[in-house]
Amino acid sequence: MKEFTIEKNDAGQRLDRFVTKTVPLLPASLLQKYIRLKRIKLNGKGAKQDAKLALGDNIQMYINDEFFEAPSEENAYLKITEPQLDIVYEDENILLVNKKAGVLCHSDGAWSYNTLIAHIQAYLYAERAWRPREENAFAPALCNRIDRNTQGIVIAAKNAEALRVMNEKIKNREVEKYYLAVVSGPMRPAAGKLEGYIFKDAVKNQVFVSDRSVAGSKTAVTEYRTLAVQNGLSLLECRLITGRTHQIRAQLSHAGHPLLGDGKYGSGKTNRQYGENGQALCSYRLVFGFKTDAGILQYLSGREFKIAKVDFVEKYFNIN
């Protein structure tokens, strides 16, 4: 139990707002529940959440210690009582989740609890598949990341050995990643390979593509094939050979076929023509093509997982 005495600067505010400020990790649903159950008391008695606080009031909080910790990415899961996840596959070692466009994989500098990793950890915590107070070091972690505005499958490891093996397989390119992309105009040829060099401007958080090597650049290779052409748009399946930042978006733009809805590398005119402000890119399929032993994950070798429905495919091509 923790006690707080209301000082001059806190007098006059509501009880629930004081608790929210004092215990930032406490979810709103638990705050309401704890007030109702009198686990949060005002001057030794139960009180309503809109009770006004006065100078010298005493507040007692019967709340677990972890909720009083300073907010960080490591404890953001505590803020989530109803995890929002679209699970593609799960077993005792890994979790494959369909990340929605607009969702961050991790916090982007400022603390945020509404990230994919926080929802995954909250889900595993609620399912008792992860007991953070009993773990010495490991917390469920992401093995790959996807841009905020891109939909797709993200791999999460439930234990340290699964994380080590999966990271090694991704590094050695034994996990094949396929994307669906809608671009402007027909590709010529209809299937092929985009090869070039990418260098990143960290200040602008933007990459640039060159046909020749320049200082600081890295090779970038993307295979593609056309699946459909309709109404001035092409649906492509792209396979990453290398995994550079914004690789598909930047290479398609450099090739003269910008991604539909892409606000950074795309065509504003084309985006306005189709009324599209969400980029039509989805990491929809994973193939675990292990070439060497995968230890505890060997059972995944040769298996393929994909997202059953991709909205922009149905919207523009009526296929999936």
TrEMBL record:
One of its GO terms (biological process) is pseudouridine synthesis. It catalyses: a uridine in RNA = a pseudouridine in RNA. Its EC number is 5.4.99.-. It comes from the Bacteria. The active site is at 147. CDD domains: PseudoU_synth_RluA_like, S4. One of its GO terms (molecular function) is RNA binding. Keywords: Isomerase, RNA-binding. Pfam families: PseudoU_synth_2. InterPro entries: PsdUridine_synth_cat_dom_sf (IPR020103), PsdUridine_synth_RluC/D (IPR006225), PsdUridine_synth_RsuA/RluA (IPR006145), RluA_PseudoU_synthase (IPR050188), S4_RNA-bd_sf (IPR036986). Residues 93-254 form the Pseudouridine synthase RsuA/RluA-like domain. Responsible for synthesis of pseudouridine from uracil. Belongs to the pseudouridine synthase RluA family. This is Pseudouridine synthase.
